[in-house]
Amino acid sequence: MSIKKRGQNEGSIYFHNKSNSWCAQISLEGKRITKYFKTKTEARAWIKITLDQIDSGLSLKGASSNVKQFLSEWIIAVTPNLAPTSARDYASYINRHINPYIGKIKLSELRPDQVQTFYNRLSQKGYTQSTIRIVHAVLHKSLNQAVKWGLIGRNPSSLVEKPKPKKKEMKTWNNLQVMSFLSAIQDPKYQALFYLAVTTGMRQGELLGLMWEDLDWITGHIQVKRQLQRITGLGKVLREPKSASGKRTIVLGQTALDKLKENKDNQFRLKSFVGEKWKEHNLIFTSSVGTGIEPRRMYLMFKKYSKNVNLPSIRLHDLRHTAATLMLQENVHPKIVQERLGHSDITLTLNTYSHVTPVMQNDVAEKLDNLLKPILVSNQA
Question: Are residues 25 and 92 in the same domain?
């Protein structure tokens, strides 16, 4: 075995008889890193690249650890600043999607083309664009942190073609179809629940997370503060909205308040009937024993009522789109629509409901005609 030594901290290369390969070593910060290669050229190149990375300010850990090792440390570091469900989701995407494909690649050697190939392979495996976008978001966020920690010089995921979302077809009901749907509901609880859905545009989880303390009967204001969701492994949980705009106050009309009053009276009778079996959570919409309504249950009831009156099939989430469309068609200012929906930016509202614009354009043209026609007729006379 012959050893070719280099200068101080420049590493060494020698042929390792037992493994029949070339061994490259560098010693820095009191630690020795050893790698084996098929050729001497590869060993020399590795030493040069590693030392260049360290000279450029990257840490020894960044030069030696692989993607999986880095992500393991990153998820531990960021978990205290994440909601429990978010931390759980991050770890799931890392373990199920990222590590199996690129986990063994050295962090400092991860290239944009490898990230792009990774995304393409996920797509070929049949994963949805939505899933791939989340994988990208997690990987991109973690690699940004790697740059801040001095583990890599740049984020390779910033240089790839990000997965583009497939725009789902939006279907809505008109006002007559909405009235037909509501007339098919006899249960006071679901009458109030779905009436709020089509007049406020609240999300399913926001509706199911409403509490009586959120409602001001005098002003008609109801505050959106939380969402009820079913999380795998945790059951039904109440979570705060992810964005500041998600927390909002919505003004209700008298009909909505009347339906909520009927629901409250019915809830009181139900509570008296079941007695000690009632579990008080102060929720506006509850199961028969006071717990939150299962999101799946709301979906099934929505499908049942709409099918009973032969309405066009739409998604439950499309009730939110229906509410927004009806508001815009009634010339409610887009800023008000944005605030009721909880959108962070009015641009999102306008882009999402651009299909309403042509109808509004016709209305504007007709209104301007009616406004100016008397003046023109007077001048011609």
Answer: no
